[in-house]
Amino acid sequence: MQEHGDAVRRFTRTLALKPAIESQPAIEDEPYGRAQPGDRADEFGADTPAVACVVISLARERSGRLLREARRTQLLPPVVNPWGTLHAYGELLTRRPRPLAVLDVPDEGGADELGQRVGIVQRLAPVTVLAPEGVCPAALLEAGATNVLPRSMPIEELAARLMADQRWVAREAAREPLSQGQNPMPPGPLPEHASQRVLLELVLADPRPWCCHDLTLLLGPAGQPLTRAALRARMPRLEPHLGRLGLALRRTGGWGRFSYLVVPSPELTPALCHAA
């Protein structure tokens, strides 16, 4: 299993997607809603630069007004990504230090399955939710959100709190020990399509199983999840790239609910290899 982990870390270094968002200036503040890291801030320097943020909206056409106002504070990037945007997911998975995901929920109409969506995104990167009135912050925090901010908040305060979240993420990243002995893999073919590259990053970035319902929700537009048939067609295409690492893809469960897990190849039986 140690060899499996080392191989995954080496391979993920070969899948860098072009970053589109520059790091932002810092502000003295701390997020609320989770344990406050400010007590140990001096350990890493009070001037720790904030990480970048990647904005994802459940309804891009209704996010415009608030985010235009926020951009005037020079906080948010110019790009607002609709849910399901592969480039945004690639940015969250490959950029270092890892960005803060800002999930904008313009109205309660986008609150369906919101807890599940937050739980999925937090597997990619820390996530702050911009929530409308009527959404329960506690439920989203339990789902894994770093912070939940009301969209009705004055724009100056909203900008300051988002910046505080970015600094908090930067300080948490500074606490993580640097990995040792990571070397790039020998040159080899990567998936030709962005969807396959991002999918490969997803299964390699988190050792936990990926449920089919989470993957279909993540990879499709907000109102139209990817079909399970389409997901089943995509997953076997990852096998040649995993095989170069001595890894394989295991599928468990039935047709109604199944999960995918990356495992060392020797642990798979021929039957499981064909099922994946």
Please outline the helices and strands.
Layout: H1 2-12, E1 53-57, H2 60-71, E2 80-82, H3 86-94, E3 100-104, H4 114-121, E4 127-131, H5 137-143, E5 147-150, H6 155-175, H7 194-205, E6 210-211, H8 212-219, H9 228-234, H10 239-243, E7 247-253, E8 258-264, H11 270-275
Parallel strand pairs: 1-2, 1-3, 3-4, 4-5
Antiparallel strand pairs: 6-8, 7-8
Helix pairs in contact: 3-7, 4-5, 4-8
Q: Overview of this structure, please?
A:
The chain has 11 helices and 8 strands. It is of the alpha/beta class and 276 residues long. It folds into 2 domains: 2-8 and 190-275, no CATH class; 16-175, 3-Layer(aba) Sandwich (Rossmann fold). The strands form 2 sheets. Strands 2-1-3-4-5 form a 5-stranded parallel β-sheet, with helices on both faces. It has a 3-stranded antiparallel β-sheet with strand order 6-8-7. Helix 4 (114-121) links the parallel strand 3 (100-104) and strand 4.
